[in-house]
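One such shown below:

_____
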Amino acid sequence: MPANSEVLRTVKIDVAQARAPGMGRGVVVAVIDSGIDLDHPMLRGALLPGRDFVDKDLDPSEEGTDGDAAYGHGTAVAGILRQVAPEAKLLPLRVLSPNGSGDADSVAEAIRFAVNQGAHIIHLSIAASVSNKGVRAALQFAVSRGVLVVAACGNDGSANPEAPANALDGKNPLGQFGVSVSAVNVDGTFPSWSTRGGEVLAPGVALQSAYPQGQTVSATGSSFAAPLATGALALALAEGKDPAVLAARLTSGAMLDASQLLQ
């Protein structure tokens, strides 16, 4: 979207796209979130058949209304991914209710499902104050299969990432394939609400993206910074880059530079 041009230039998505003629083609990104508006024009042609781990059915559509805290969250995440890697395929996996609540068992189940469905990247724009053993085990399973995991750090303003992003640091086996993302302003400064400690920083303020019922939204939070990194990784994977090497390049705690992933 033209409104995101400055953000995309800041993290050199424009340069990365110029170096990635496949634009993410052949890469599957699992979006574990609140569901997705399956009929949104911005996402047409990008979505694979997904699953709903809340209602235990095959329809991962967004549910709820505008007044619900998490309504539109997954759709906005997917919209940013589509802008960065327009040829990547998105696997929608619903684990959050419209109010933003979710069950750790559902998240773990969705992670394992994504791996078994051939996802190359698992995207987690979800955060919890307490880590969960089952989710950590599922992430370890993903790593054992060489799947990249990108997780948003959260929005509680603290110095340390929330779960599951706190399992993705360099002191953990997940560090080989995991990337945690903290949100910053476009000038690289931290908003007061941003959770620090991410392995990579990305703009997460007022990004324009998709919203249910074919609408658009201005989205703010680490949830919307993280898909910039995921999309950049998808661009690079589509060009045959090694996933472990890519993840290692996003561990400096500096602003995302998507162009370096395509060198």
